[in-house]
Specification:
Blueprint: E1 2-5, E2 8-11, H1 15-26, E3 31-34, H2 39-44, E4 50-51, H3 53-61, H4 66-71, E5 73-75, E6 78-82, E7 85-89, H5 91-94, E8 100-102, H6 105-118, E9 123-124, E10 128-133, E11 140-145, E12 148-153, E13 156-159, H7 166-169, E14 177-192, E15 202-205, E16 211-215, E17 221-227, H8 238-248, H9 251-256, E18 262-276, E19 279-280, E20 283-285, E21 291-292, H10 300-321, H11 325-352, H12 360-375, H13 377-387
Parallel strand pairs: 1-12, 2-3, 2-13, 3-9, 6-15, 13-20
Antiparallel strand pairs: 4-8, 5-8, 6-7, 10-11, 11-12, 14-17, 14-18, 15-16, 16-17, 18-21, 19-20
Helix pairs in contact: 1-6, 1-10, 10-11, 12-13
Bound molecules: adenosine-5-diphosphoribose (APR) and P-hydroxybenzoic acid (PHB).
The site of adenosine-5-diphosphoribose has 29 residues, from helix 1 and helix 10.
């Protein structure tokens, strides 16, 4: 068995694990990443693509914002289409100039992987039988890699291994509580090399269900339709997808919509999920390993980023200042922000989707709420400040000296 000693073992090479790795590298804190999939698989996963300003700031601090700066599309507003009419929510004017940036999660992942490769940091891709042990005393990670057994001995384990990962599953059941809501529909997503139907995102509430017009660039669009969970991707030819999208849009957008061959098509279920606490001894959960939001508010990646901001600064405090305050406060600080984003994502989902179980009364109340939000300055401000992201402090990383 090969023994590797390090300070932090990061399980999972999604955006959470990679960003933590990059920030620890910048702070001179030794770490390794253990990932069960191949690097190619990780770099090609397609997911949402809206970054809050604070997430952009964090990527800048991590030194991985070169492509983001040149290719990211800053957006200062979103459109909400209801009753066949579009209403613009001017995010920037409602939030003292804040905006969001359209930049695919796939690109964020690739940028982080490239930086990691460039810095020659240790990653074990395609690790098998990953196991985390003894995280209440002397943490260990064991796995099988390229025909050999490995054991990582470390001070801390960062569980960045997503919803299906091994870290949360390894916590004793009496030490953890989970909260969950599963929604009775999914999102059918299509990626196509066609110009976006509009300059800004359009969130569509219609009698036929929710739709979203998003984008990855000026020549690549991402569209979604609310579909029953019983539907399969094979049920949806490109033609059927575009027809249904058109039926949910307003006449002007319908006219402008450019259709084309899909380059990716998938159905994702919608779920709200939170784990409490997010720390178990020397094991910290971050990102999807700890919480899931439905994609309606585009908060998944941003929440992963804020967990990592708290975790990296807690580890910097621990190693450079000898203080345990950050690690002791990690779970509570994260969860405060997590629950607010959970609330916002649940609310957006509830407001914009069609639920089969809703009564006519429920439907009328929802229409009234949406109308209130879109016509009141206070209502729009509530939406805008949550959408651009609730603020948190990003501590400067001044410690570039490696920790011995
Ligand atoms: N051992 C090693 N790696 C694992 C294991 C395991 N047992 N289980 C899962 N993983 C890996 C997965 O293969 C994946 O690459 O952990 C990684 C988790 O990455 P993500 O699922 O992308 O989770 P996270 O980094 O928290 O990213 C959050 O992703 O799903 C979106 O909406 C979400 O945008 C948010 C972001
Ligand atoms: C996306 O572009 O994939 C996207 C954008 C906004 C959302 C969800 C997904 O709310």
């Amino acid at each position: 068995m090969e023994i590797v000693k390090t300070k932090v073992a990061i399980i999972g090479s999604g955006p959470a694990g990679l960003l933590l790795g990059q920030l620890l590298y910048k702070a001179g804190i030794d770490h390794v990443i253990i990932e069960q999939r191949s690097a190619e698989y990780v770099a090609s996963r397609i997911r949402a693509g809206i970054l809050e300003q604070v997430s952009v700031d964090l990527l800048e601090q991590a030194g991985v914002d070169q492509n983001l700066k040149t290719k990211g599309l800053p957006h200062s507003g979103i459109e909400i289409l209801t009753n066949g009419k579009k209403h613009r929510v001017d995010l920037s004017s409602l939030t003292e100039g804040k905006q969001v940036t359209v930049y695919g999660q796939t690109e964020v992942t690739k940028d982080l992987m490239q930086a990691r490769e460039h810095a020659e940091l240790t990653s074990f891709y395609e690790a098998e039988q990953v196991q985390v042990d003894d995280f209440y005393s002397e943490p260990k990670v064991t796995f099988h890699y390229h025909g050999k057994d490995y054991q990582i001995e470390c001070d801390f384990i960062a569980g960045c291994d997503g919803y299906h990962g091994v870290c949360r599953a390894s916590v004793p059941v009496d030490k953890v509580k989970t909260f969950e809501k599963v929604y009775p529909f999914g999102w059918l997503g299509v990626l196509a090399d066609v110009p976006p139907v509009a300059d800004e995102l359009i969130y569509v509430q219609s009698e036929r269900g929710f739709a979203l017009c998003s984008m990855r660039s000026e020549t690549r669009s991402r569209y979604y339709l609310q579909v029953p969970l019983t539907d399969h991707v094979e049920d949806w030819s490109d033609e059927r997808f575009w027809e249904e999208l058109k039926r949910r849009l307003d006449p002007e957008s319908r006219e402008k919509l450019v259709t084309g061959i899909s380059i990716e098509k998938s159905i994702a279920p919608l779920r709200s999920f939170v784990t409490e606490p997010m720390r178990f001894g020397q094991l910290f959960l971050a990102g999807d390993a700890a919480h899931i939001v439905p994609p309606t508010g585009a908060k998944g990646l941003n929440l992963a980023a804020s967990d990592i901001a708290y975790l990296s600064s807690a580890l910097v405090e621990y190693y450079h200042e000898g203080s345990e305050q950050g690690i002791n406060e990690y779970s509570e600080k994260c969860l405060q922000r997590v629950w607010k984003a959970e609330r916002f994502s649940w609310w957006m989902t509830h407001l914009l989707h069609r639920f089969e179980t809703e009564s006519e009364f429920d439907h009328k109340i929802k229409q009234a709420e949406l109308s209130y939000i879109l016509t009141s300055q206070a209502g729009q401000t509530t939406l805008a400040e949550n959408y651009v992201g609730l603020p948190y402090e990003i501590k400067p990383l001044n410690h570039l000296q490696p920790v011995g």
